[in-house]
Each structure stands twice: as structure tokens, then as C-alpha cells.
Design goal:
Helices cover 22% and strands 31% of the residues. By secondary structure, it is an alpha+beta fold. Strands 10, 11, 12, 13, 14, 15, 16 and 17 form an eight-stranded antiparallel sheet that branches. The protein has a four-stranded mixed sheet with strand order 4-9-5-6, covered by helices on one side. A three-stranded antiparallel sheet has the order 1-7-8, with no helix packed on it. Helix 1 packs across helix 2.
Amino acid sequence: GIPVIGCTTAGEITSEGYRENTLTGVSFGGADYRASIRLIEGLDRFRMEAGSVVVQDLFADLGLAPLSARAIPHQVFAMLLIDGMSRQEEVVVSSISRFLDPVPLFGGSAGDGLDFGTTWVFADGAFHTNAAVLALIETDCPFSVFKLDHFRPTDKKMVVTEADPVRRLVTEINAEPAAPAYAKMVGLDEHQLNPMTFAAYPVVVRVGGEYHVRSIQKVEEDGSLRFYCGIDEGLVLTVADGDDIARNLDSALTKLAAELGSLDLILGFDCILRRLEAEQK
């Protein structure tokens, strides 16, 4: 009688640090938490308006009117797990966020190590592809939804001059083949490009006054770059330098502890390139 949700990963964050091939879980229960869960199937057919129905159903399960006086960020948060190979994260998140606001949303894309073959989400007692799981959780406990990274933008900028956002491919940067242009910008040879170099030389995009990482997945045979998210033509990519990853994390968590008091749990979603950088350094 207890709903269980989950997803496949590219490694796990555990109480003992980074691990692989483990099952990592946490429970929300007792009188302090009330949860509602929806499996969203057929992501290849997902439309922007679909988020409205899903969000309304979740609120109704908890006896909340959407955007009512009770449905405010310090009482309710939402978590999304989504098939990482669906390439539908942007449209699903945009749709859900539109109807959830101001309830904070966090989560991640299901992983498959560095194989990028098939990824799965788990709900209703079974694994699903081409699907996502959205959980809405109401709690009396204090919490904070946060994000962090340890990158500083440099003055190295490049413009995406040809791209296919749907396929998440960038074929040209600065009117040159994408992979050689990126390699030249970071001072490497094209043949040196691999996940480790993408982790060491990330690119960021300025959105709403803040810089956000746009991770590169791999180099395709034709010299194009495949990203983990859709990249539009005309977008300005900035090469970033990394601060000390451990010191940055410690500072962020110390600040959170000061805001909330003692921390009982940190539920974290990590980028595979962040993990690679941590292991490398």
C-alpha cells in the first residue's frame, strides 16, 4: 500500500558517497508528509496543455485547490523523474512549471551510465520508458529546493550558427564545424574531446541574469556536438572555469543549514559530468 517511485541512474549518491550498481532510496511518511503521484506516459505525444490536467489531479488528491492560499512553496514541493532518452524534458518541465508555479519543482533525468541506450522510470509497480513520474508532496517540515554549480564564466564566447534543437545537435559554432570550433576555443585538439574534457571545460548560457550549464554529451561522427538538452541557433555559449567543487558544495550546504536548522536529509540530483569531474580531481 505504499507508492514507490524511482528511476535508473548513471551512478548513485549515497550516505557513503558516490556508488554504482546500488539501490538508493528514501522514504517520506508518517504524519509529516502527504504525497500524490502521477505516471505520465507517451512522452513522444506530450503537449504543453497536458501539464494542466496532471497538476490539477495531484492537487485534488491532496485536497488542495491549485494555487490556493495553502499551496505555497514552504508547504508543497514537486519532484519529477523522467526518461532521460525521451528528449522531452524541456516541454514536460515547461508545461508542468507553468501550472505548478509558485510551487518549486526539482528532479532529474533517468540515466544509463555513459551508454545512453535505454533509461527507465519506475511507478505503479513497473518500469516504463517514454514516461515520467511527477510527485507532489505536502509537508509540515521546513525545506528548501536549491541548485548549485561551481563554474565561473570566462571571456571565451561562441555563437551557435547551425543546430537541430529537437535532436539536441549543434552542427556549427562560429560558422565552423562544431566539434573542432569548440576544441579550438578550449585549447584542445578535436580528437581529445571526451566526457572528461566536457566536464573540465563546460559551457554556460546566460538566462535571466544567471548562468546555467549546458552539458555536452558526445561528439558525433560528422563532427557535430550532441548536448543533453536542446540548443537553439543564435545562442551564445560561454566557456566556464570551475571553482573547487568540494569547497563550493560545503559553502552551499552550510548556508542551507543556517537557514533551516539541522538537515535531516539532502535529496540530490547530479549531472554525470559533475560526477566525472569529482572522480577525476
